[in-house]
Amino acid sequence: MDRFSLVxxxxxxxxxxxxxxxxxxxxxxxxxxxxxxxxxxPHSQDENQLRQAxxxxxxxAHQNRQYKISARLKDFVRQLGxxxxxxxxx
Length: 90
Prior knowledge:
By secondary structure, this protein is mostly helical. The protein is built from 4 helices and no strands.
């Protein structure tokens, strides 16, 4: 993933953190920790773990009607490769 994509992923993560109260959704904080770890050091992190975290966060955003955030996160999942399939957002 190029540097620009990492910046956009970080921005999207911050939007998700603001929109999804991590006190209600403990998995949001766990996913955010994995994503931030990857952003901070992309070459030392496992992309499969990143893909899982981004996918889970996208699903949580979708469940909470945060469709734009969900769509942006699903774009990152697709960029990371096989793992999500077709978007469930129209």
